[in-house]
């Protein structure tokens, strides 16, 4: 657990939740942290997903933390509160935090569908949300296609669909019961349409890989999921419209689904800081100037990192609740501060962990040292969409320079996959 450096939490610093539901979630989660922490090293070494931990999450209602209370969940609806919980969990194990993020973010996005979708979408969302609240449903997302693969829906001739393709980097997959699969389909006129079929794990033709040898986040259950003529009912497909049509309104949903991950990498940086500072404090001699300089720099960057993330989260919470204005402007207003904060976190968190390795010395260069695990885990933040570093630079510079471009990375990917090499 992070060492408190102030007597009371400050708004925006990710020290404490801001709603009663957020406090309830964090209180329940805190009781599981010793179990998470004790298994983190072995799970990382063996790339083992902590199934027992997630069974405990389900018993406590944490798998339904972001499900509305009226559907049986804890009713956590603030992105800020979710990020606080993920930060605390990541201090014990970032892999577990990444996997839980998948479930919590899906609860938030499905709640929007339940409140604002068409009747079939609302029915699908309610069914899943109620199952999440009871711990019966673990809902994964499949975004990234395997190299050279286009995950695609084709008509089955009877009013439904067949899904074919392969997704990589699907976290929480070992226990996933439902998969939200970002796919494409062709309209009669050749237009590429975006769609998200929801596929149950028991669907014929769906297979989940058994092992993933990642650089970091090795216990997050991040696996490949393949689809071969998987039948999908028409009512289990969320239509997302044509690719290539600029709709910045979608940036709001992408922000909601991803911004709470900032808490994970803040938690990794905090955990590294606490380990390194404790090691320095145990030394009998007065710390030399170089050590004191590193410690001061680490705490300064950690404060900056948390402040940037906390402010972006508060901004996203404020705008996500307001559907009264220009929805494209709302989408940009949520995504742009998110990307400022993401750039900041992805630059400062690895630098903090690196300096903590310097403070610890050569003993931290052993593969199973906690700092070695944190050093590998923290690098994952730069690969998370939206956006990876290159696309993030394109987005932020485009906003500054008034570029007329499609900011929906799923739309851009879809069209790119259809372009001959």
Automatic annotation (TrEMBL):
It comes from the Bacteria. It comes from Catenuloplanes nepalensis. Belongs to the acyl-CoA dehydrogenase family. Residues 145-230 form the Acyl-CoA oxidase/dehydrogenase middle domain. InterPro entries: Acyl-CoA_Oxase/DH_mid-dom, Acyl-CoA_Oxase/DH_mid-dom_sf, AcylCo_DH-like_C, AcylCo_DH/oxidase_C, AcylCoA_DH/ox_N, AcylCoA_DH/ox_N_sf, AcylCoA_DH/oxidase_NM_dom_sf. Pfam families: Acyl-CoA_dh_1, Acyl-CoA_dh_M, Acyl-CoA_dh_N. Residues 259-381 form the Acyl-CoA dehydrogenase/oxidase C-terminal domain. This is Alkylation response protein AidB-like acyl-CoA dehydrogenase. Keywords: FAD, Flavoprotein, Oxidoreductase. Residues 39-136 form the Acyl-CoA dehydrogenase/oxidase N-terminal domain. Its cofactor is FAD.
């Amino acid at each position: 657990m992070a060492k408190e450096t102030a007597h009371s939490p400050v708004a925006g610093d990710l020290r404490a939740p801001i709603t009663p539901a957020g406090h309830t979630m964090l209180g329940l989660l805190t009781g599981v942290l010793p179990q998470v922490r004790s298994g983190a090293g072995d799970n990382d070494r063996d790339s083992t997903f902590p199934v027992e931990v997630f069974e405990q999450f389900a018993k406590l209602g944490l798998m339904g933390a972001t499900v509305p209370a009226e559907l049986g969940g804890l009713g956590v609806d603030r992105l800020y509160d979710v990020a606080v919980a993920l930060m605390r969990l990541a201090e014990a194990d970032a892999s577990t935090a990444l996997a839980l993020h998948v479930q919590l973010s899906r609860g938030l996005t499905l709640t929007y569908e339940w409140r604002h979708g068409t009747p079939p979408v609302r029915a699908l969302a309610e069914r899943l949300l109620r199952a999440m609240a009871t711990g019966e449903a673990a809902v994964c997302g499949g975004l990234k296609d395997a190299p050279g693969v286009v995950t695609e829906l084709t008509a089955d001739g009877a009013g439904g669909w067949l899904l074919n393709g392969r997704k990589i980097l699907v976290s929480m997959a070992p226990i996933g019961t439902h998969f939200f699969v970002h796919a494409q389909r062709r309209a009669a006129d050749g237009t590429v349409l975006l769609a998200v079929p929801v596929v149950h794990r028991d669907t014929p033709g769906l297979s989940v890989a058994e092992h993933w040898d990642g650089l970091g986040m090795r216990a997050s259950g991040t696996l490949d999921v393949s689809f071969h003529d998987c039948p999908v009912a028409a009512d289990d497909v969320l239509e997302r419209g044509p690719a290539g049509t600029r709709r910045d309104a979608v940036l709001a949903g992408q922000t909601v689904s991803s911004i709470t991950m900032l808490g994970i990498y803040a938690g990794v940086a905090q955990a590294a800081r606490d380990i390194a500072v404790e090691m320095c404090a145990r030394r009998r001699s007065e710390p030399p100037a170089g050590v004191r300089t590193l410690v001061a720099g680490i705490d300064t960057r950690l404060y900056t990192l948390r402040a940037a993330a906390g402010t972006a989260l508060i901004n996203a919470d404020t705008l996500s609740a307001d559907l009264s204005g220009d929805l494209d402007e709302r989408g940009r207003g949520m995504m742009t501060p998110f990307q400022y904060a993401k750039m900041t976190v992805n630059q400062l968190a690895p630098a903090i962990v690196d300096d903590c390795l310097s403070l610890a010395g050569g003993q931290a260069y052993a593969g199973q040292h906690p700092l070695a695990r944190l050093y590998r885990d923290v690098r994952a933040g730069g690969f998370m969409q939206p956006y990876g570093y290159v696309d993030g630079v394109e987005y932020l510079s485009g906003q500054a320079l008034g570029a007329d471009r499609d900011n929906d990375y799923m739309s851009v990917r879809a069209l790119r996959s259809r372009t001959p090499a």
